[in-house]
Amino acid sequence: MRRVNDPGRKYFYRGLSDSERAAFEAGIALATAYHYLLGLPLPRRRASIHRLLDELGRGLASQPFREKVELRVKGLRIGKQVYRYGRIDPRSLEVSVVVRYGGSRVWGRMSWVEELDYPLMRIEKVVHTDGLPSRRRS
Questions:
Q1: Averaged pLDDT for residues 123-132
Q2: Residue 116 is part of a domain; what is its CATH number?
Q3: Residue 70 has pLDDT above 90, yes or no
Q4: Which of 27, 50, 67, 88 is the right S-S partner for 98, CB 3.0 to 4.6 Å?
């Protein structure tokens, strides 16, 4: 099993598995992106929007155990009028995150689910990178 250099580990429940901790961290990453970005005004040029989202994603990926964070904004309507600017709202924001903790890697995603009328944060995949099933620590 891969060892994690995590000085904060001692503050967590001892029986927490690596995959459970990775899922927890993915949830933190998704919630951070959602609450941090909601309402953010966007530049009028699409190329500028992509650069902004790339840089914000890199910033969010600097949090512990994040391997990758991708931000996307879809369905923007940016007009030419002075009061018609794009901004991030729950329906337009999509976030994907990959977290690695110990012997586990977790993929999380947040996007608008029309059926639920809600920006759903969820775990899409869990892989045990050491080839072993996730075990609880004692």
A1: 83
A2: 3.30.1300.20
A3: yes
A4: 67
